[in-house]
Amino acid sequence: KQEVTQIPAALSVPEGENLVLNCSFTDSAIYNLQWFRQDPGKGLTSLLLIQSSQREQTSGRLNASLDKSSGRSTLYIAASQPGDSATYLCAVEESGNTPLVFGKGTRLSVIA
Amino acid sequence: NAGVTQTPKFQVLKTGQSMTLQCAQDMNHNSMYWYRQDPGMGLRLIYYSASEGTTDKGEVPNGYNVSRLNKREFSLRLESAAPSQTSVYFCASSERYNLGYGYTFGSGTRLTVV
Fold first, then answer.
1. Going by DSSP bridges, is the β-strand pair A106-111/A10-14 parallel, antiparallel, or unpaired?
2. Could you say which of A80, B31, B40, B79 has the lowest number of CB atoms within 10 Å?
3. CB distance B90–A31 less than 8 Å?
4. Other CB atoms within 10 A of residue A33 CB
5. Which residues in chain B have their CB less than 8 angstroms from residue A25's CB?
6. What's the helix, strand, coil split of chain B in %, to 5?
7. With an 8 Å Cβ cutoff, is A30 touching chain B?
8. Phi and psi at residue B83, to the nearest 5°
9. Tens of pLDDT along B78-114?
């Protein structure tokens, strides 16, 4: 059974810092990996999707990397802002058209 | 706005009562899902529907039933609510694109069973 782990569970940083969120998964035979953002009381918003054949994806200040062989992904946020404060969730898709398996998330607070 | 619409947004039930959570998407997606989110537990899959006319159990299906009414609508029913079903419920839909499956989530239904 696929298990997704996110470390740390919570993180607080001052504004302007670069930071890294970690995600690990137990079965490396994945189809793709996705990062989502969730604001308090809201649904999930997709940030980045990395196919199993890719090493990284970038969107603005966000960069996600994937090392499938070691079962790890990182989400790098550059020059953090208070508006980045949210919970970030990692999820893997094991094969085409199978539901996502989620980690428990990292709650990020960026302090002005 | 296009997306996934869930109703109601909030609900309080007494133990033993029944209710149906409604979900509709207007993006013509084939696949739809119901997840529950509990503190410290992340999102756990209850049921999903890969296409109209099919449904499958997820990780935590006990106490729930689903209906894929048509391509747009996927409902979740609690026949006899229990306090353990207090949670936030999210509906999602997905469709395959070049890079994989793009997911869209609803804003959630916060259910309290007393």
1. parallel
2. B40
3. no
4. 27
5. none
6. 5, 55, 40
7. no
8. -55, -30
9. 999 999 999 999 999 998 766 666 789 999 999 999 9
Arithmetic mean of pLDDT, A96-106: 89
Q: Please indicate if any CB of chain B lies within 8 Å of the CB of A51.
A: yes
Secondary structure element (H or E) that encloses residue B47, with its range:
strand B42-49
Query: Which H helix or E strand runs over B112?
Result: strand B109-113
Residue B59's Cβ-side half-sphere holds a number of Cα atoms within 13 Å equal to 17
Per-residue model confidence (pLDDT) at position B97: 66
How far separated are the first and last CA of chain A, in Å rounded?
A: 41
CB A76 within 8 A of CB A63: yes
The answer to whether residue B63 scores a pLDDT higher than 80 is: yes
Q: Choose among B41, B19, B42, B22: nearest CA to B32.
A: B22
Fill in the amino acid letter for B57: K
Distances in Å between the Cα of A16 and the Cα atoms of A61, A75, A96, A103, B5 are 12, 16, 38, 26, 36
Distance CA A30, CA A27 (A): 7
Cis peptide before B39 (omega within 30 of 0): no
Backbone angles phi, psi at B85, to 5 degrees: -95, 5
- The whole-angstrom separation of Cα B77 and Cα A85 is 34
| Biggest alpha carbon–alpha carbon distance for chain A | 42
Q: What is the mean pLDDT of chain A?
A: 94
A47 close to A95: Cβ distance less than 8 angstroms: no
DSSP type of residue A26? S
